[in-house]
Design a protein that fits this description.
Blueprint (H helix, E strand, L loop, with lengths): L1 H17 L16 E7 L1 H10 L1 H5 L3 E7 L5 H8 L4 E6 H4 L3 H6 E9 L3 E3 L14 E5 L2 H13 L4 E2 L12 E3 L5 E5 L13 E4 L1 H6 L4 H4 L2 E2 L7 E7 L6 H10 L2 H11 L4 E2 L2
Parallel strand pairs: 1-2, 1-3, 6-9, 6-10
Antiparallel strand pairs: 3-12, 4-12, 4-13, 5-10, 5-11, 7-8
């Protein structure tokens, strides 16, 4: 009887050993992800790209959960609070625009550029903007400055020397056609097109509104834009194996081909 008990215990111990991974943790049960990775994102293109690689991560034992946001503040707040493992919606200048974000969060890797564009409901050329035209721009410092730099690059305005990436309408030194600027939350800009003469709109919100940046923008940033969209984590988590797996998945040939075929220049892969 004792021999039988010893034999059963030995078999149980052997089964336990066989079910341990290299580091002594239980092996993944077939079909069940061993870990969860929760990433916050704006829907297009970020959420779309994350959903594209869900199966790739699942095959590595990682369940990717995508939480969608419609603004640019909540994803960083949720990440700092620990409700997310990462987020994917912003560029480095925006991340650095808030001291708390800059202190607690860090870029893990870059994926793409969404060229910022100037759009109008009834104009075909930026040169057709009338005297005193109302132009809506993002109200956050980095994207607002980015919008003004775009207008300056086409000679529509001139900013004072040293205004930099965080330029505001108060930094305009020369405004030949006396444009008036209305600062709005970025997500509201597409809806403002019926109320203003033109609006400078972030690429993701333009796409969500059914605008094609390549075809519809009067002015569009080039592929050399420094505003690369990044995956952000809490500081110290840049080398988390789940984040490294996400980097490989989002920076794959599959994703690059999808970006090129789907957006044809409206979203530009940087890898």
């Amino acid at each position: 009887m004792k021999k039988a008990i010893v034999r059963v215990l030995s078999l149980g111990a052997l089964a336990a050993v066989l079910n341990l991974g290299v580091y002594g943790s239980p092996k993944q049960e077939q079909g069940k992800p061993a870990s969860v990775l929760t990433v916050g994102a704006t829907p297009v293109p970020h959420g779309e790209l994350l959903n594209l690689v869900k199966e790739d991560l699942a095959s590595q034992g990682i369940e990717l959960k995508v939480v969608e946001f419609t603004d640019y503040v909540s994803p960083n707040s949720a990440l700092i609070a620990g409700d997310l493992d990462a987020n994917y919606f912003q560029h480095i200048p925006y991340l650095g625009s808030n001291p708390e974000w800059a202190e607690k969060l860090s870029s893990a890797f870059g994926v793409h550029v969404e060229p910022l564009g100037l759009y109008a409901a009834s104009l075909e050329d930026a040169g057709d903007l009338p005297e005193g035209a109302r132009i809506a721009i993002p109200n956050d410092p980095t994207n607002g400055g980015r919008a003004l730099l775009l207008l300056q690059s086409k000679g529509l305005i001139t900013l004072r020397a040293g205004a930099g990436l965080s330029a505001s309408p108060q930094d305009i030194a020369d405004n030949p056609k006396h444009f008036r600027f209305q600062e709005l939350e970025a997500a509201q800009l597409p809806r403002s097109l019926g109320d203003v003469d033109a609006a400078v709109i972030n690429g993701n919100y333009a796409l969500e509104a059914g605008l094609n940046p390549v075809d519809d923008a009067l002015i569009l940033e080039g592929a050399d834009s420094p505003y690369v969209n990044i995956v952000v984590v809490r500081k110290g988590n840049e080398k988390d194996p789940r984040i490294e797996a996400l980097s490989r998945a989002l920076r794959s040939v599959k994703v690059k081909e999808y970006i090129n075929e789907t957006w044809n220049g409206s979203v530009i892969a940087i890898f």
